[in-house]
Amino acid sequence: MAERKTLTITEVNEIQKVGDKQIPKLSFKARGNEAEEAISYFTFKSSLFDYIKTGQTITADVETEQRGEYTNRRIVQVYKDGQPVVSKGQGRSYGKSPEELEQQARLMILAYAKDLAVADKISLDDITGCADTFYAWVKGNGKPPEPKLKAEDSTPSEAETLPPSPTGKKVQNIAELKKLLMKHKIGTHEAYETLSIGSFMDLVDLDKAWAEIKKAKGIEH
Fold first, then answer.
1. Using CA atoms, how far apart are residues 20 and 42, in angstroms rounded to an integer?
2. In a domain? residue 143
3. DSSP string of 76-95, one letter each residue
4. Which of 75, 162, 186, 187 is found 20 to 30 A from 194 (Cα to Cα)?
């Protein structure tokens, strides 16, 4: 269990890379008060390195482990103005700098946008724009991403995409009905509730079903 201590740093060693994964380790000496002798501490969290400087006094959480005649004192958190400088959600950085973590987040979001393009949910031209939208949302700087039809799927009017068939029906199959729902931003579950059905396969007359949905949602065209 970690113990919170106030430490005055007297000496900071060069960063070392240890283990098979070459994880950066920062060792230093510090004392708890003027009367105490400086003793050794270390941390593997690179996000804390900038807060450990010779001559500085820090408040930190220290995990102490006794191994035979040796005592390991590991810094797991540093506080500034009473607030932790590393959030719990960040977990262990394993030597990655803030810039590297930022790049990793961007690459993950870009990969997700590419998956959407592969799934034919967005066009190839929209990959970077979609990634930027998701990134801003994750960082709390934007609105949640909204579904966007591919350019070839979005049309100015229902009449242009759904010309009357020889039978006189505009909604000729379930796919056409789903396009109309997406166009008017109506969720599938909303359509189910409006029509009191459990699946579109339950419908007999798609034209009639669409008319009921338009009436319920106040859609004129």
1. 18
2. no
3. EEEEETTEESS-GGG---TT
4. 162
Give one DSSP letter per residue of 7-31, joined into a string. Answer: EEEEEEPPPEEETTTTEEEEEEEEE
Quote the CA–CA distance of 52 and 55 in Å, as a whole number.
Answer: 9
In a domain, 146, yes or no: no
**Cβ(63)–Cβ(1) below 8 Å:** yes
150 falls within a domain? no
Asked if residue 109 and residue 67 are part of one domain, the reply reads no
The pair of structure tokens assigned to 148 is 């966007």
**CATH number of the domain bearing residue 12:** 2.40.50.140
At 103, the pLDDT band (50, 70, 90 cuts) reads low
Q: In the structure encoding, which two tokens stand for residue 24, read together?
A: 């950066």
Say what angle helices 206-217 and 188-195 make with each other, to 10 degrees: 100
Per-residue pLDDT tens digits for 22-43: 889 999 999 987 767 899 999 9
pTM (predicted TM-score): 0.41
Q: Which domain holds residue 162?
A: 158-217
Counted domains in the chain = 3
Using an 8 Å Cβ cutoff, are 113 and 122 in contact? Answer: yes
| Nearest Cα residue to 92 out of 77, 109, 107, 71 | 77
